[in-house]
Design goal:
Radius of gyration: 20 Å
Number of strands: 20
Structural class: alpha/beta
Number of domains: 2
Largest sheet: 7 strands, mixed
Number of helices: 10
Order of helices and strands: EEEHEEEEEEHEEEHHEHEHEEHEHEHEHE
CATH superfamily of the largest domain: Medium-chain alcohol dehydrogenases, catalytic domain
CATH topology of the largest domain: Quinone Oxidoreductase, Chain A, domain 1
Strand content: 25-35%
CATH class of the largest domain: Alpha Beta
Distance between the termini: 11 Å
Length: about 350
Amino acid sequence: MEALVIHAPGDLRVETIDTAPLGAGQLQVRVRCGGICGSDLHYYQHGGFGTIRIREPMVLGHEVSGVIEAVGSSVTGFAAGERVAISPSNPCGICKFCQQGLQNHCLDMRYYGSAMRMPHVQGAFRQQIVVETHQAHKLADHVSDGEGAMAEPLSVALHAVRRAGPLLGKRVLVTGCGPIGALAIIAARRAGASHIVATDVGAHTLGKALKVGADEVVNVAETPDGLQRFTADKGSFDVLFEASGNARALVGAFDALRPRGIVVQVGLGGEMTLPINTIVAKEFELRGAFRFHEEFAVAVELLNKRLVDVKPLISATLSYRDSARAFALAADRSQAMKVILNFD
């Protein structure tokens, strides 16, 4: 089968690789669609992010869906021909964090398309993949393959919303309206947020934020003081979801966050310097949000029950053989939110 293999920055190749043998408790899945994630872009553009770098050829991709081609001899509950979204998360299940229900912090995690460990964990941008049954979640007939591939980033947003705690009736600010920020808007609204304001530096992304449920948007490139009206009486917002990974966006939102407001940092963009005096004086709670676990099943259920709509965020679907154009488009926030690769 063919796969998209990254060798170095800008060096992404279509190569033939072997399919792993099918184990008794596993599923063989024909991959149909895969979404290009921010981390895929970092590998493609820079060879990695932070201290993580590609040290050997690696199949990219972790946002995929497909159709079951074969089931292992001991598998029950799945059949060939069923369509599934595939969770890229494969924790060990036995380390101390897995045993505490913190599988996203597994000490022996194998997460598709990750250079965090050596040898690297090969990704899912391939025509065929063998997965564990716990990674496969059935898709309803009305959910497209592209929407199924969106289950993974939706899971990230759902985990971030869970980290924030109850949102019923809360006023929410989302900074950064790329795919994760936009999905955080969807997830926050589903969780009961009463008013959601979103900020970004691009008109295209802000337009998408409105389409998926933001009540108001602020283009901080055009109106740098656009959050000023929310700063009266020590701030208006109960919760901030920071999805840009930009320190200026995070700190710039502090004046609009009320005392004892909750800050959920979702975006990663390098180390930040924080105004500790403000955090202390306003008694903010700063919470990180890293990946997900059980939220993947919830994401698929929400899609299956038509309780969320991710279609406005899918900008284009291109063949995996046209990966250079697809990655260039995915990197252009003036034109695209989520670009889907077709592996048929």
